[in-house]
Amino acid sequence: MRIFLLPLTTRQALIYCQRAAPNPQAKASIPDRITKKAAETWAQWETAQSGWRKQIVKYGNQGLQRIPYQEWGLKSFPPSNPKLQAEQITKNEKFDVVYPGNVMHKEDVPKVMARLARERKQLHWNRFIGSMVAMPFTVPFILVPVIPNIPFFYLVYRCWSHWRALKGSDHLDFILDHRLYRPVSSPELEDLYEQVAPDAPDFKFLTRSQILDGSAPPEQIILPADSHNVVAKATGVPELSGEVERALWQIQRQFQQEKSQQASENPKGGETQTDNKQR
Hints:
4 strands; membrane; Mitochondrial K+-H+ exchange-related-domain-containing protein; alpha/beta; disordered C terminus; Mit_KHE1; transmembrane helix
């Protein structure tokens, strides 16, 4: 198992866990079998040329794109259990945390991991419970003919997604608490950042108080939007292409929303009045 920590902006980083290859002779767990079946069904629906399946896939993919990239990152960690944790502690098994040392400082690696593990834990728990509570209210949609009960299956998926994110954050917390990680600056990643973002500023870990009191420098994007395939190639992890693409799309959207909000708070009319006063 390897953990990748990729700076996206001067404040935000993506975390992704590359799991060890599964034992082909081992029996898949029930959640894994359900997940596999759901993925196969979704892939089958994506081949539809028209009809309700095509529409569900279209809007479903748009919804998946908007699920926070931090949640996807936590879901990449396999759920742990006491037996496995005891073995890892006994063996003092350390996991490589691969990061670009020319963009991120080594001492910031555990700080960023801890923030990603803990800052959204309560949110995932609240939304896991909320999805569970809302499920019974979607039962009447079963009466709709032909089309499956989409609201119910959506809540099931979100419930599962938040649960997996919770378990992922617990696993990451365990790795941090027992120091079962080893920061490794990858030459391939260093070359990648030098290639795609030669003039970008470095990643800076900021405390919450620095952000709230306004003493932090403005946030800037490090990785360009079209770098996702290059990241996947440099790391040798094809899955990172989709993860990075989604994260950068969300960050670009976040920056645009903040820019629009600032523009609405400081309209041109106010600037004109100030100019008139100066004249």
